[in-house]
Every structure is written in C-alpha cells, then in structure tokens.
Write a structure and sequence with these properties.
Blueprint lengths: L2 E5 L2 E3 L5 E8 L7 E7 L6 E6 L6 E3 L7 E6 L4 E6 L8 E9 L2 E4 L3 E5 L2
Length: about 120
C-alpha cells in the first residue's frame, strides 16, 4: 500500500518562501512520476508541477513557472517543492501525488497560507 506524507506548509508573507516535502513508501519511487497539486477553498484541485524519473524532466503550471522548483531524491524517496516569491493566490492545501504501475496515490495534504 502506497503511503505519502507531506510536510513543510505554514503561514508566510507575500514574497516569502516555503519548502514542501513528501516522503513516499510502498512503491518503486525511482519509477514513479511524482507531482504536486493544490486546492484552494471553493476551487477544484489543480496541477502545480511534475517530475519524471528519467532525466529527470520537470513541468510546471504557468502560474508557478519561474517561482517554484520541483525536485526528487530517489535514495530517500522524497519529493520537494521549493516555492519562492509566494503570492496570496498560492494559498491552498498542497498535495503530493505519485503515479506508479497505473495507480495514482495521494498524500493527506499540507496547508500553505500566504498573507500579510
């Protein structure tokens, strides 16, 4: 059974930075496509960024490109999202997501609030 645990959320002022992490188990992490999604109150969950296991190759939503950086440490089965120049519209619950063997799994989420 895949288990994913996120951490690193919190309250930050506009223009600040946060670093989110998620640790995964129960899957072959170095063969999984890993992603971050987010969901703001009253809105649908949206994709933020993804990273493949080959290359690796990264992709970002236009709203975060240039501000966020996704990375992975396969030895530690850890996914990271470095978030810089945060804006109030980045406020959301952030979810770590894995796709492995055709199965998509989610963590419980970590709250990020950007406010002065």
């Amino acid at each position: 059974q895949v288990q994913i645990v996120e951490s690193g959320g919190g309250l930050v002022q506009p223009g600040g930075s946060l670093r989110l992490s998620c640790v995964s188990s129960g899957l072959t992490f170095n063969r999984a496509i890993m992603s971050w999604f987010r969901q703001a109150p009253g809105k649908e969950r949206e994709w933020v960024a993804s990273i493949t296991w080959t290359g690796p190759t990264t992709n970002y939503a236009p709203s975060v490109k240039g501000r966020f950086a996704i990375s992975r440490d396969d030895a530690r089965q850890t996914l990271t999202l470095q978030m810089n120049d945060l804006k109030p519209e980045d406020t959301a619950t952030y979810y770590c997501n894995s796709v492995f063997g055709g199965v998509r799994s989610w963590g419980q989420g970590t709250q990020v609030t950007v406010s002065s």
